[in-house]
Design goal:
The chain has 448 residues and is of the alpha/beta class. Helix 14 crosses helix 15. It has 18 helices and twelve strands.
Length: 448
Amino acid sequence: MKKPDNNPRSLAVTALVKVKDGAYSNLQLNHLITEAHLNSNDVNLLTTIVYGVIQHDMTLDFWLKPFIKNPKKVADWVFVLLKTAVYQWQYLERVPKRAIFDETIKIAKQRGHEGIRRFVTGVLHTMDRNGLPDASQLKSPVERLAITYSMPEWLIQTLNQQLGETKTNAILATINRPANQSIRVNTAKITDDDARVALVAEGYEVKPSLVADHAFVLSGRPASHSKLFKSGAVTIQDESAMLPAQAMEFDPSAMVLDACAAPGGKTGQLAERIDAQKGGTVVALDIHAHKIRLIQKNAERLGVSSRVTPVALDARKVDEQFEDATFEAVLVDAPCSGIGLIRRKPEIRYGKQLADSQRLAQVQLDILNAVAKKVKINGIITYSTCTILNQENRDVVAAFLDQHPDFQSVRVTTAQGLKQDRAADYLEIYPDDYGSDGFFISQFKRVK
């Protein structure tokens, strides 16, 4: 019987190969951690290596390239193993180089054969002897940034054009830093003060969010291990992601539409402010039936399922089930490229092209056009994305307002008064602004 693999470095190779084949990094990590029964130190090392290699993938390729003469002949897992070694060597200061090399060679032998062991040994020792190539010597400024920060050139060029080089460089300097661990207090179950006291008692370091209301930034241990999380008294959500729902105003008796709801984080957030006994509900749409179950499960954990009406429906087809002027408020947290989530989901950057944003912009506009008649006069549509590209943000807003003279832009406000000196009504949050995800929020009021 094959002995279970509980070596975090070897498990990191397993996870990274699956991510390369299209798996989600967070799901792979959760699966491997559960299966291998790792202690906390090994979990930390496994997680650090997996996310670190993904974050710095282009940099690692650049460093390895001179030392691998025939890359097409190298098995995927061997290439990945070498990346994990170089990542640890260059980025994990507390781990001795000798230990990294010895462990890498040991894994090569265990997972492969003597020829692979010799190949890996040769590559590592040659890199150590000759030194790694220097990205600062690259002539093209864009290529230099791309290799240094492991960001596709098209994305750097687009951000340069839209935001300027100074802002782009500031974003690039932050995207490979660890994401904050933030939680939102479920006000339907507990107060902010009681949540803070309970979390401190559980051993967390708790800091109030500077971005969102009813939110804390935690450190010390995973938020999912908290008793409050398990009971639904708090939920894990990025600070920026809390803002669209918090910007919405409606009466507790209101009919509210969450047009792109799965997995239901913002649905639950809206439902906390709903009174079902007064006829209020949040209608939560998603095109996929299995995601409707996620919305239901999340609402049940938060204790707000009686305030949520999940419906399996493409938001572009709301005409099929809902009369015009049905809802007091509508949230369109639209499907997007997710470029604002790069710190939290580092693999996003590698599979995208500008054409993807342009295609998604049409989908986003189609959804807005479909829900426009479903909001009552004086009702507000809140449009949000977790990307930082104008194609899916400013351009979509401009197109919607141009096509709908019966709507007017209204200023997005936040409890923390973010960016009060901005000229635009919409709110743009970039990854370097507050250490949270990149997000865009705009609101339109139906005036006739």
